[in-house]
Amino acid sequence: MCTGVPYRSRVSELLYLDTARLGRMSPGAATALRDFVALAGDEGGGLYLDRFLAGGLPACPDSFAARFPGLAGWRGIGGLKADLRSLADGRPDLPVLLASRSASLVKLAARLLFHPCRNVLTTDLDWPVYAATLAAEASRGGRTITTVAVRDAALAGRLAEDELIDRVCRRFAEAGCDGLYLTAVSNLGVRLPCERIVRRLEADHTVRVTVVDGAQEFGQFPPADRGPYCDLYLAGSHKWLGGYHPLSIGFYGRGRSRDRVETILGSMTRRGDLDDPLLRFSTRLEAGVCDPLAETVNLTPLFSTQGAVGDSQGFGNPLPARLSNLDAAATVAVGSGWRPLLPSPALRSGILLLQCEAGAVRTDDPETTRASLRRGGVAATAYPGGLIRLSMPSIDFQGGQLNTLSDALRLDR
Known about the structure:
With 413 residues, this protein is α/β, with parallel strands linked by helices. It has helices spanning 27-43, 47-55, 63-67, 76-88, 102-114, 128-140, 151-155, 161-175, 194-204, 258-271, 277-286, 300-312, 319-334, 359-362, 366-375, 401-409, and strands at 15-16, 96-99, 119-123, 144-148, 179-183, 209-213, 232-236, 248-251, 338-341, 351-356, 378-379, 381-383, 387-391. The strands form 3 sheets. Strands 2-8-7-6-5-3-4 form a 7-stranded mixed β-sheet, with helices on both faces. Strands 9-10-13-12 form a 4-stranded antiparallel β-sheet. It has a two-stranded parallel ribbon with strand order 1-11. Helix 9 links the parallel strand 5 and strand 6 (209-213). Helix 1 (27-43) packs antiparallel against helix 12 (300-312) and helix 4 crosses helix 12 (300-312). The radius of gyration is 22 Å and the shape is globular. The chain starts with 14 loop residues before the first strand and ends with a helix.
């Protein structure tokens, strides 16, 4: 018999500033995952596992609570969705989609946009893979995408928030757009004032569908009401939230489009255009439908996400600490041979982009730069051309962490 024990991470001197793909697994996520592995080892796919999936530990024998305490937060799919709604500050009836791949919900977003829209406006802040999915769907339906260039000016600090909004809204009108796909925070750290853009455009124009990519916003910024201003909000638990195992999340429920989202989702699922086992499994489990012929599904993201949500609920607004850390890290970088690329204050996030000032490092392979930083005790993301990305922690830098960062960045070490 396996006995669940609270997870204790080993003491690590690594300064983890890398959430481009996966964030560092939170302690609660690790504890939940460890106890789920113990539960699966004891019970396999038996009766009690089925009961646990549907109703959590209260649906199992009393001994389970002591054996697997890390799973105490799991109350079934409905409970996880309720916690995610709370984390997103959404309405109690806000529908939530859970999928194993972000590509699945991006496909849904593309179909939702180009089903009614003739011309969708977006910006050059979009993640390239998602932009390619949108382009493929637009081409399939003979639709148009209008892209507004804001990235370079924003990273250079030459674009204020109001100027950015003016540029986007003006282009929407000039091109005759009727749909929006906006990235709330880009992978390079530029924050887009999505709600202000949407509210202004809807006051003056017809905006048939709005989709917001919040993958780099969710868990990094304080909760905001995701539902009323957009028709579909895409998020994930594996980056800033600390769930680690990829889980894609979709929030919808705007009155004008709720039925349309569900109709398109159902149609794509039946036709095989959207084939995500976890999306199908979670939807059926929440509805109490048992399908003995369903595909075997990897369930680990559900429990690591539940644990991460539990951790996040104990914190307040992380944004002030992230922005304070960004200022401190930028100051350190300047003295170590790197130039911070800082948007205007309203467009900043907890992501700091640094450009190396030395020509030799600019030609290094990104993995070489990343390995050099790692040897210095810093985990970071590296891009071609001597660019690195640092993701700020949600609490102030501790002890000698800024010295560690300074030493890792120094080009003469």
